[in-house]
Amino acid sequence: xxxxxxxxxxxxxxxxxxxxxxxxxxxxxxxxxxxxxxxxxxxxxxxxxxxxxxxxxxxxxxxxxxxxxxxxxxxxxxxxxxxxxxxxxxxxxxxxxxxxxxxxxxxxxxxxxxxxxxxxxxxxxxxxxxxxxxxxxxxxxxxxxxxxxxxxxxxxxxxxxxxxxxxxxxxxxxxxxxxxxxxxxxxxxxxxxxxxxxxxxxxxxxxxxxxxxxxxxxx
Length: 219
Description:
This protein is mainly beta and 219 residues long. It is built from 4 helices and 11 strands; from the N terminus they run H-H-H-E-H-E-E-E-E-E-E-E-E-E-E.
Protein backbone atom coordinates (compact mmCIF):
# COMPACT_ATOMS: atom_id res chain seq x y z
CA UNK A 1 0.00 0.00 0.00
CA UNK A 2 1.50 3.36 -1.04
CA UNK A 3 1.58 6.39 1.15
CA UNK A 4 -0.91 8.07 -1.18
CA UNK A 5 -3.58 5.53 -0.28
CA UNK A 6 -3.10 5.81 3.46
CA UNK A 7 -5.01 7.99 5.86
CA UNK A 8 -2.42 10.31 7.32
CA UNK A 9 -2.31 12.33 10.48
CA UNK A 10 0.34 15.12 10.86
CA UNK A 11 0.62 18.21 8.68
CA UNK A 12 2.33 21.51 8.27
CA UNK A 13 1.36 25.10 7.82
CA UNK A 14 1.68 26.87 4.51
CA UNK A 15 1.08 30.26 2.86
CA UNK A 16 -1.36 32.76 4.31
CA UNK A 17 -3.38 32.84 1.06
CA UNK A 18 -4.10 29.12 1.32
CA UNK A 19 -6.17 27.07 3.75
CA UNK A 20 -3.96 24.49 5.53
CA UNK A 21 -6.65 22.42 7.24
CA UNK A 22 -7.10 19.58 4.76
CA UNK A 23 -3.37 19.58 4.09
CA UNK A 24 -2.75 19.19 7.82
CA UNK A 25 -5.12 16.21 7.96
CA UNK A 26 -3.33 14.36 5.17
CA UNK A 27 0.26 15.36 5.76
CA UNK A 28 2.55 17.28 3.44
CA UNK A 29 3.96 14.37 1.42
CA UNK A 30 0.52 12.88 0.73
CA UNK A 31 -0.98 16.29 -0.08
CA UNK A 32 1.71 16.95 -2.69
CA UNK A 33 0.75 13.79 -4.59
CA UNK A 34 -2.86 14.89 -5.12
CA UNK A 35 -3.84 16.40 -8.48
CA UNK A 36 -3.34 20.17 -8.64
CA UNK A 37 -7.08 20.75 -9.12
CA UNK A 38 -7.93 18.83 -5.93
CA UNK A 39 -5.39 20.81 -3.92
CA UNK A 40 -6.81 24.06 -5.26
CA UNK A 41 -10.36 23.12 -4.25
CA UNK A 42 -9.53 21.92 -0.74
CA UNK A 43 -6.70 24.37 -0.13
CA UNK A 44 -8.59 27.46 -1.21
CA UNK A 45 -8.65 30.18 1.42
CA UNK A 46 -12.06 31.68 2.17
CA UNK A 47 -12.43 34.80 4.25
CA UNK A 48 -15.00 35.08 7.03
CA UNK A 49 -18.44 34.58 5.47
CA UNK A 50 -16.97 34.17 1.97
CA UNK A 51 -18.39 31.43 -0.27
CA UNK A 52 -17.44 29.41 -3.31
CA UNK A 53 -20.13 27.82 -5.51
CA UNK A 54 -19.93 24.75 -7.75
CA UNK A 55 -22.63 23.96 -10.33
CA UNK A 56 -23.32 20.57 -11.83
CA UNK A 57 -25.79 17.78 -12.55
CA UNK A 58 -26.92 14.63 -10.75
CA UNK A 59 -25.94 11.79 -13.08
CA UNK A 60 -26.91 8.64 -11.14
CA UNK A 61 -28.87 7.58 -8.10
CA UNK A 62 -29.98 4.34 -6.47
CA UNK A 63 -32.24 3.79 -3.46
CA UNK A 64 -33.19 0.52 -1.82
CA UNK A 65 -36.55 0.33 -0.05
CA UNK A 66 -34.79 0.65 3.31
CA UNK A 67 -32.61 3.46 1.96
CA UNK A 68 -35.61 5.42 0.70
CA UNK A 69 -37.37 5.01 4.07
CA UNK A 70 -34.26 6.08 5.96
CA UNK A 71 -33.77 9.15 3.74
CA UNK A 72 -37.37 10.24 4.29
CA UNK A 73 -37.13 9.73 8.05
CA UNK A 74 -33.88 11.73 8.08
CA UNK A 75 -35.82 14.76 6.87
CA UNK A 76 -36.82 15.21 10.52
CA UNK A 77 -33.25 16.35 11.23
CA UNK A 78 -32.86 18.37 8.04
CA UNK A 79 -32.81 15.81 5.23
CA UNK A 80 -29.08 15.05 5.00
CA UNK A 81 -29.59 12.12 2.58
CA UNK A 82 -30.82 12.29 -1.05
CA UNK A 83 -34.30 10.81 -1.36
CA UNK A 84 -35.76 11.56 -4.82
CA UNK A 85 -34.80 9.47 -7.86
CA UNK A 86 -36.23 12.18 -10.10
CA UNK A 87 -33.17 14.32 -9.30
CA UNK A 88 -31.17 12.39 -11.93
CA UNK A 89 -30.51 14.74 -14.83
CA UNK A 90 -31.45 17.76 -12.73
CA UNK A 91 -29.22 20.67 -11.75
CA UNK A 92 -27.14 20.46 -8.57
CA UNK A 93 -25.39 23.28 -6.70
CA UNK A 94 -22.88 23.10 -3.85
CA UNK A 95 -21.79 26.15 -1.90
CA UNK A 96 -19.05 26.24 0.74
CA UNK A 97 -18.98 29.12 3.23
CA UNK A 98 -16.40 29.81 5.92
CA UNK A 99 -17.76 29.44 9.46
CA UNK A 100 -15.89 31.91 11.62
CA UNK A 101 -17.59 30.96 14.90
CA UNK A 102 -16.65 27.28 14.77
CA UNK A 103 -13.57 27.70 12.54
CA UNK A 104 -15.06 25.28 10.05
CA UNK A 105 -17.15 25.36 6.88
CA UNK A 106 -20.85 25.41 6.07
CA UNK A 107 -21.79 23.19 3.13
CA UNK A 108 -25.13 23.63 1.33
CA UNK A 109 -26.10 21.16 -1.39
CA UNK A 110 -29.12 21.81 -3.60
CA UNK A 111 -30.54 19.05 -5.82
CA UNK A 112 -33.22 19.78 -8.39
CA UNK A 113 -36.26 17.50 -8.68
CA UNK A 114 -38.65 16.75 -11.53
CA UNK A 115 -41.37 18.61 -9.62
CA UNK A 116 -41.62 20.62 -6.45
CA UNK A 117 -38.94 22.51 -4.58
CA UNK A 118 -35.31 21.31 -4.80
CA UNK A 119 -33.91 19.30 -1.92
CA UNK A 120 -31.53 21.42 0.15
CA UNK A 121 -29.00 19.73 2.45
CA UNK A 122 -27.23 21.76 5.15
CA UNK A 123 -24.19 20.53 7.03
CA UNK A 124 -21.26 21.95 8.96
CA UNK A 125 -17.71 20.61 8.77
CA UNK A 126 -15.60 21.26 11.85
CA UNK A 127 -11.94 20.46 12.14
CA UNK A 128 -12.12 18.79 15.54
CA UNK A 129 -12.63 15.46 17.26
CA UNK A 130 -10.58 12.25 17.37
CA UNK A 131 -10.20 12.04 13.57
CA UNK A 132 -9.55 15.75 13.04
CA UNK A 133 -12.77 16.45 11.13
CA UNK A 134 -16.49 16.06 11.91
CA UNK A 135 -19.68 16.79 10.03
CA UNK A 136 -22.86 18.01 11.75
CA UNK A 137 -26.19 17.60 9.94
CA UNK A 138 -28.74 18.93 12.43
CA UNK A 139 -30.48 18.24 15.75
CA UNK A 140 -27.09 17.57 17.33
CA UNK A 141 -26.42 14.60 15.04
CA UNK A 142 -22.93 14.34 13.60
CA UNK A 143 -20.28 11.92 12.46
CA UNK A 144 -16.52 11.74 12.73
CA UNK A 145 -14.84 11.36 9.35
CA UNK A 146 -11.64 9.69 8.17
CA UNK A 147 -10.02 11.49 5.24
CA UNK A 148 -7.93 9.42 2.84
CA UNK A 149 -6.06 10.36 -0.31
CA UNK A 150 -6.85 8.67 -3.63
CA UNK A 151 -4.77 8.87 -6.81
CA UNK A 152 -7.39 11.22 -8.28
CA UNK A 153 -8.99 12.80 -5.23
CA UNK A 154 -10.15 12.31 -1.65
CA UNK A 155 -12.30 9.87 0.28
CA UNK A 156 -14.35 10.82 3.36
CA UNK A 157 -15.50 7.81 5.38
CA UNK A 158 -17.66 7.74 8.49
CA UNK A 159 -15.75 6.59 11.56
CA UNK A 160 -18.68 6.79 13.99
CA UNK A 161 -21.91 8.72 14.59
CA UNK A 162 -22.73 10.76 17.68
CA UNK A 163 -25.32 12.99 19.36
CA UNK A 164 -24.04 16.29 20.76
CA UNK A 165 -26.12 17.96 23.48
CA UNK A 166 -24.32 20.99 24.88
CA UNK A 167 -20.99 19.80 26.30
CA UNK A 168 -22.14 16.18 26.33
CA UNK A 169 -21.62 13.70 23.52
CA UNK A 170 -23.21 10.28 23.09
CA UNK A 171 -21.52 7.98 20.61
CA UNK A 172 -23.92 5.67 18.78
CA UNK A 173 -23.17 1.95 19.06
CA UNK A 174 -22.47 0.21 15.76
CA UNK A 175 -25.84 -1.58 15.75
CA UNK A 176 -27.68 1.76 15.96
CA UNK A 177 -25.74 3.45 13.15
CA UNK A 178 -27.48 3.56 9.73
CA UNK A 179 -24.42 2.23 7.95
CA UNK A 180 -21.02 3.17 6.59
CA UNK A 181 -21.10 6.44 4.67
CA UNK A 182 -18.46 7.11 2.01
CA UNK A 183 -18.14 10.35 0.05
CA UNK A 184 -15.68 10.51 -2.83
CA UNK A 185 -14.28 13.56 -4.58
CA UNK A 186 -12.60 12.46 -7.82
CA UNK A 187 -11.03 14.85 -10.30
CA UNK A 188 -12.23 14.33 -13.89
CA UNK A 189 -9.98 16.88 -15.56
CA UNK A 190 -10.92 20.04 -17.44
CA UNK A 191 -12.17 21.67 -14.25
CA UNK A 192 -14.72 18.96 -13.47
CA UNK A 193 -15.04 16.59 -10.53
CA UNK A 194 -17.27 13.72 -9.42
CA UNK A 195 -19.07 13.84 -6.07
CA UNK A 196 -20.17 10.35 -5.05
CA UNK A 197 -22.14 9.41 -1.91
CA UNK A 198 -22.71 5.80 -0.84
CA UNK A 199 -24.39 4.51 2.31
CA UNK A 200 -23.94 0.78 2.99
CA UNK A 201 -25.29 -1.29 5.83
CA UNK A 202 -23.34 -4.37 6.89
CA UNK A 203 -26.46 -6.54 6.87
CA UNK A 204 -28.60 -4.91 4.17
CA UNK A 205 -25.95 -3.89 1.67
CA UNK A 206 -26.15 -0.67 -0.33
CA UNK A 207 -28.95 1.63 0.84
CA UNK A 208 -28.23 4.86 -1.05
CA UNK A 209 -25.92 5.85 -3.88
CA UNK A 210 -25.68 9.19 -5.68
CA UNK A 211 -23.27 10.55 -8.29
CA UNK A 212 -23.10 14.19 -9.38
CA UNK A 213 -20.62 15.92 -11.69
CA UNK A 214 -19.64 19.50 -10.89
CA UNK A 215 -17.67 22.25 -12.61
CA UNK A 216 -15.10 24.45 -10.90
CA UNK A 217 -16.38 27.91 -10.06
CA UNK A 218 -15.13 30.98 -11.88
CA UNK A 219 -13.36 33.49 -9.65
